[in-house]
Amino acid sequence: MRRDRMQPRNKSKGSVRIEERAGRRIVVKDYGGVHNPLVRFYGWLTLRNEARAYRLLAGVPGIPVCHGMTEAGCLELDFVDGRHLGLFKRRSVPEAVFEKLEHILRSMHARGVANMDLHRSNVLVSDDGDVHVIDFAHAVIARSPQHPGIIARLAMQLDRYAFDRMKARFSGFEKPVPAGAFGILYRCMKSLKRAVRLIKRGA
Q1: What is the pLDDT of residues 4-33, one digit of tens each?
Q2: How many separate domains does the chain show?
Q3: 128-143: pLDDT as tens digits
């Protein structure tokens, strides 16, 4: 069984490896090798949250097939062969890519799942133009898709804003500026995210 391991970006990240099984490539996300117990527990929680999000999104085109959690606490899902949007130059992404991405977001939200961390590295585009959204570690899941509640609705709005920013970036348009109550929340979340990143680096 062939294994390829990708190095984590920092100490707060678990390992991601690709295993080949019976001709299929499987992505395995694992925090078992993280030495800090708090980070390891945090990672286990995010993997469980991610597994739940994938389970709710099963069958949605553009969402990788997830095989769930293993007894060892790893998350396994099908490998997606594609390049993330961060590797594309501006004005080089076809309009069809954003049409497909927008359809994926609508399908996600219809099932009560918001990604909450949608950015260029989490959107993969294959050579054939297929689009996939990955990494649901910080997903917000509504109690009911029909009545998502204020937190889930704001998370979905954040997904949409992230989509608008990416589309503007690659289309050469001016990036939208969040306004009103959502704008205040967005700036607070950005500050919180920076603070959490600094804490993780020191962990």
Answers
A1: 544 444 455 678 999 998 889 999 999 988
A2: 1
A3: 999 999 999 999 999 9
Concatenated DSSP letters for the chain? --EEEE--SSTTS-EEEEEEETTEEEEEEE-TT-S-HHHHHHHHHHHHHHHHHHHHTTT-TTS--EEEE-TTS-EEEE----EEGGGSPTT-S-HHHHHHHHHHHHHHHHTTEE-S---GGGEEE-TT--EEE---TT-EE-S-SSS-HHHHHHHHHHHHHHHHHHHHHHHTPPPP---HHHHHHHHHHHHHHHHHHHHHHH-
Please report the pLDDT score of residue 47 as a whole number: 96
- Provide the residue range defining the domain that includes 189: 3-202
For residue 26, the domain's CATH number is: 1.10.510.10
Please give the pLDDT value at position 10: 47
